[in-house]
Design goal:
Layout lengths: L15 E5 L5 E5 L6 H7 L19 E3 L2 H4 L7 H7 L9 E3 L13 E3 L6
Parallel strand pairs: 1-5
Antiparallel strand pairs: 1-2, 3-4
């Protein structure tokens, strides 16, 4: 007896994150859910995110600016992150450490802007 099995293709869509340089150059890449925005940048060789501490929140070299329309859609920074942001180059009210922004399906289309330099 022959059994027919219907196989449905499974597609895993990864959210697209756009990294915008301080000069306005855009790089849009897919980043797996559960990774940080910083990890997505490192895996895709995005310039402007140095990530010297590898995401342990011990530096501010993954500092980014999050546009206002996205700022309320991501988790608020904890005190330790805010302390590191205070040491970043030209921190602003919309500054975040990209190592602390965890990618989820809700962040599809997120844009982050890299500062002119990392500290």
């Amino acid at each position: 007896m022959l059994a027919l099995i219907h196989l449905k293709p499974i597609f895993y869509l990864m959210p697209k994150i756009t990294y915008i340089s301080h000069e306005g150059k855009k790089n849009t890449v897919e980043v797996a859910t559960g990774l940080s925005v910083m990890e997505g940048a490192v895996q895709n060789n995005i310039e402007g995110i140095d990530a010297d501490c590898g995401g342990s929140m011990a530096c501010a070299t993954c500092h980014v600016y999050v546009p206002e329309n996205w700022f309320d859609k991501i988790d608020k920074p904890i005190d330790a992150e805010q302390d590191m942001i205070d040491m970043a180059h030209e921190p602003k009210k919309n500054s975040r450490l990209s190592c602390q922004i965890i990618v989820s399906n809700e962040l599809e289309g997120l844009e982050v802007i890299t500062p002119i330099k990392q500290t």
